[in-house]
Structure formats: C-alpha cells, structure tokens
Amino acid sequence: MAASLAEEIRQAEESAKKIIQQAKAEASRLVSDARSESERRTKEAKQELHQKFRQEIAEAESQAEKRAETIRAEGKKQTEAFVQARKSRVEEVATWLVKEVTAKYGLS
C-alpha cells in the first residue's frame, strides 16, 4: 500500500511537471503571439499615418498651388492696370526724351 501510494505521488508529480511544462510553453507561445501582433499593428499604424501624412501634404500643395495661381492672376491684373494707367504718358515721355537728347547732343 505504501508503494502504491508512493507510485501515485510520483505519477501525480510527473503529471504536474508535464502540466507546468505545457503551461510554460503555452505562456511562451502567447507572449510570442502578442509581440507579433503588437509589431504588426504598430507597422500598420505607421503605414496608415505615413499615407495620411502624404495625402495631407498633397492636399496642402494643391491648396498652395491654387492660392499661388490666384496671387499670380491678381498680380497680372495689377500689372496690366499699371501699364494701362501709364500708357498715355509713354508718348509724352518719349517726346520729351527726344527733345532733351537732341537739345544736348544735336541731330547728328
């Protein structure tokens, strides 16, 4: 009976060791899976953020280009208005300049 009891204890201890080994292996696998999942999610998040960043940059560039076109158009209108406003004086200034040059240097 004592031998039988000792054998039961030994079997229980072996069974407990196997259960502990299996639990450690399962825990290791779970930790490994969790790390892999964490790395995958981190990578996905980085990719999504990078894509969103690129989209925002493209949108900002597009808006800047539209604004630049508006500014160029306004500048062109202002330049044309300036030229038109001074156009009538061009002939007057040219005539005055010819008179000044011919008065100083003659008609040679």
Structure characterization notes:
- With 108 residues, the chain is mainly α.
- It contains 1 helix and no strands.
- The longest helix has 104 residues, at 2-105.
- The chain is rod-shaped, with a radius of gyration of 45 Å.
- The N and C termini lie far apart (145 Å).
Which ranges are low-confidence, i.e. pLDDT below 50, for 5 or more consecutive residues?
none
Note the overall shape.
Answer: rod-shaped
Helix-strand pattern: H
Question: Tally the helices: what do you get?
Answer: 1
Largest sheet: none
| Total DSSP E strands | 0
Mean pLDDT: 92
* Helix fraction bin: over 70%
The fraction of residues in strands falls at under 5%
Rg estimate, integer Å: 45 Å
- The CA-CA distance between the termini, in Å, is 145 Å
How does the helix and strand content classify structurally? mainly alpha
